[in-house]
Amino acid sequence: MSTFDQLNLKPELKKNLVTLGFTDFTPIQKESLPYVLEGKDIIAQAKTGSGKTVAFGLALLQNLDVSNFRIQALVMCPTRELADQVAQEIRKLARLIHNIKVLTLCGGMPFGPQIGSLEHGAHIVVGTPGRIEEHLRKGTLKTSDIRTLVLDEADRMLDMGFQETLDTIVAQLPTKRQSLMFSATYPEQIEKIAQRVLSKPERIKVESVQT
Ligand code: ADP
Ligand code: ADP
Ligand code: MG
After folding, report:
1. DSSP secondary-structure letter at 157?
2. Where would I look for the motif Q motif in this sequence (predicted)?
3. By alpha-carbon position, which residue is closest to atom 20 of ligand 2?
4. Which of 161, 97, 93, 89 is nearest to 126 (CA)?
5. How far apart are CA 175 and CA 181, in angstroms?
6. Which of 31, 40, 89, 114 is spaced 20 to 30 Å from 108 by Cα?
7. Contact (Cβ atoms closer than 8 angstroms) between residue 61 and residue 97
């Protein structure tokens, strides 16, 4: 039995982890996946490179209804570069699930094509706060089917002054959802955001990164 069999994951996801050459989960994945796959909210503190994208990516993909081409998961990142990386990583994890559409919505990119892609339908949006808020304001991003929210690198988003934007976005999401928050550090403002965004979160802290 492989390590991945111990979790209740779709067979396509398990099989793909092996194909990707993964032999075991990283510490943050081991600690967070059981909660995340149960549908619990988490706030996880772990450094860059610790494997957070897989920790939340598997949760998003596990819970997705592929036949429903509406946005079901929203991932927010502090920068376009990070959003692109996360989207790539999720696409890699999703390789054996057919027709999964992961869309990036970032600032500094033309608006028109993003609207076109949204009209076409997608399952997962990964983006930066400013642009996501703009799409919500314009009504081009619909939130009714969103069941999972991820705040990746939350401390950096605060450093960049995104707090109000995040609050505006979160206020428009369905309250019945799973929220996952990741941060490398844990300043007091992060705790405040956690209290507003998360519901009875599990707190996970991984001290050092396995190399
Ligand atoms: P973080 O978001 O914490 O910065 P990532 O999720 O981007 O980290 O992961 C960093 C790198 O480690 C990625 O290239 C990813 O493919 C790889 N990785 C993640 N989980 C595993 C694993 N269980 N085994 C091997 N490599 C992994
Ligand atoms: P905005 O509110 O300015 O549209 P977003 O919050 O959507 O910005 O995006 C923030 C991130 O998007 C930035 O950290 C940067 O990576 C990228 N970005 C935003 N605007 C630009 C731009 N004009 N040129 C290049 N990258 C940009
Ligand atoms: Mg990351």
Report:
1. H
2. 2-30
3. 108
4. 89
5. 16
6. 89
7. yes
ipTM score: 0.84
Ligand 2 pocket at CB < 6 A: 79-80, 106-108, 128-131
What residues are paired with 179 via a beta bridge? 149
**Which burial class, exposed, middle or buried, applies to 85 when counting CB atoms under 10 A from its CB (0-12, 13-18, 19+)?**
middle
- Ion ligand 3: residue ranges with CB closer than 5 A: 52-53
Structure tokens at 63: 């819970």
Closest CA to 60 of 10, 109, 118, 110: 10
**Structural tokens at position 13:** 């996801």
Q: Are 51 and 25 in contact (CB under 8 A)?
A: yes
For 204, phi then psi, to 5°, come to -125, 130
- pTM reported for the whole predicted model: 0.94
Quick: pLDDT tens for 20-50.
Answer: 999 999 999 999 999 999 999 999 998 888 9
